[in-house]
């Protein structure tokens, strides 16, 4: 398994890894009809984010020896709660996304992606590290706690396309 910086050519592989991660990781948390209908091809927005990344952001992929993208991590400056499109580097760095094909769960690949992303944030001095996780995603919460993150008592909501609000909690690591 190779962990490397993502390129725009990885967009479809990233999209598929994200969708498979959502479909299994969010089962029972998000509406199943929503999960079943997620598009597995890369959106123009994702392609643009890979071609024209925001300042101090980075994308990493986990790639098999056969060239298949099985995981993705995206990091950068912390986004404000009020407007996630607004970056606030004074608040540290953020893990925006970490997804893996489920058949690769439990092999240490997510930990490698996390480590590479946090190393990048440390190199550009974006500390502390923060991330948002759905409150009911116990598996993900255990993973982040195992890697030194703690729930910092900050809560928000993730808005689904149908208007449903899902509670999120913020984790921080110094």
TrEMBL record:
N-acetyltransferase domain location: 1-173
Molecular functions per Gene Ontology: acyltransferase activity, transferring groups other than amino-acyl groups
InterPro entries with a match to the protein in the record: Acyl_CoA_acyltransferase (IPR016181), GNAT_dom (IPR000182), MshD_Acetyltransferase (IPR050276)
Pfam families hit by this protein: Acetyltransf_1
Highest rank taxon of the organism: Bacteria
Gene3D superfamilies, alphabetized: 3.40.630.30
Stated name of the protein: GNAT family N-acetyltransferase
Organism placement in taxonomy: Bacteria, Bacillati, Actinomycetota, Actinomycetes, Glycomycetales
